[in-house]
Design brief:
Layout: E1 16-21, E2 32-37, H1 40-51, E3 56-60, E4 78-89, E5 95-110, E6 118-123, H2 142-155, H3 162-167, H4 170-180, H5 185-193, H6 197-219
Helix pairs in contact: 2-6, 4-6, 5-6
InterPro entries: Lon_prtase_N (IPR003111), Lon_prtase_N_sf (IPR046336), PUA-like_sf (IPR015947)
Protein name: Peptidase S16
Organism: Pseudorhodoplanes sinuspersici
């Protein structure tokens, strides 16, 4: 979904943003992430974001390798900020919403704040290329990506909209597959931190091939 606001570079985004720590959640530039918001602190966060002119939320994963306190887990340093582009009230106190990814950020400092939700001072400067749509598409090995996807779907008895897949531009295809992938926190973080689209596609293929190899190995009959 296109946004009404255009972001041309890091200077267009605020230095301080609310962050939503969510394990396994991967948001990428121009990707769409549906969210079901029900915890009071995050309902407060959404209300405050809607009241601001930015409507921005930073998605970031807790760092499971360095967990920290249960109620305030340590965070990875890299996340992705998204703009609220759809929102509906459920009628039972929840928000059903969609974030559209804008750009990745690096956490410079977590702030001490009065809000129940967490806020960080961030920089987008290392990810200036995120503001350029479809940058590096021509370097993606699309055939290799589709082959890995096809094998994964077959191995898991899954179906996909191949017409939609074949018509999708490389950036949309790579990022959508990365965001929807069933992999763990470390793999999702590696996909997020990939320096370019080509590398992200290569990581996605490599992780998929590893998972396929594991499933084949697990399904083999032990030698007698």
């Amino acid at each position: 979904m296109p946004m009404n606001v255009t972001y041309e570079g890091p200077i267009d985004l605020p230095e301080v943003i609310p962050v939503f720590p969510l394990p396994g959640a991967l948001l990428l530039p121009r990707g769409q992430m549906p969210l079901n918001i029900f915890e009071p602190r995050y309902l407060e966060m959404i209300d405050d974001a809607l009241a601001s002119r930015h409507r921005l939320i930073g998605m970031i994963q807790p760092d499971s390798a360095h967990p920290g306190p249960e109620d305030r887990p340590n965070l990875f340093k890299i996340g992705c900020v998204g703009r609220i582009t759809q929102i509906a009230e459920s009628g039972d106190g929840r928000y059903l919403m969609q974030l559209t990814g804008v750009a990745r950020f690096r956490v410079e400092e977590e702030l001490t704040v009065q809000t129940a939700y967490r806020q960080c001072r961030v920089t987008y400067a290392p990810f200036a290329d995120d503001f350029i749509a479809r940058k590096g598409e021509e370097e993606v090995d699309r055939k290799q990506l589709l082959r890995a996807l096809s094998e994964f779907l077959q191995a898991n008895n899954l179906k996909a909209d191949w017409d939609g897949i074949e018509n999708a531009p490389n950036e949309a295809l790579v990022n959508a597959l990365a965001m929807m992938s069933p992999y763990g926190t470390a793999e999702k973080q590696a996909l997020l931190e990939a320096p370019d689209l080509k590398t992200r596609a290569e990581i996605l293929v490599a992780v998929t091939e590893i998972e396929l190899a594991k499933s084949k190995s697990d399904g083999e009959t032990p030698l007698q």
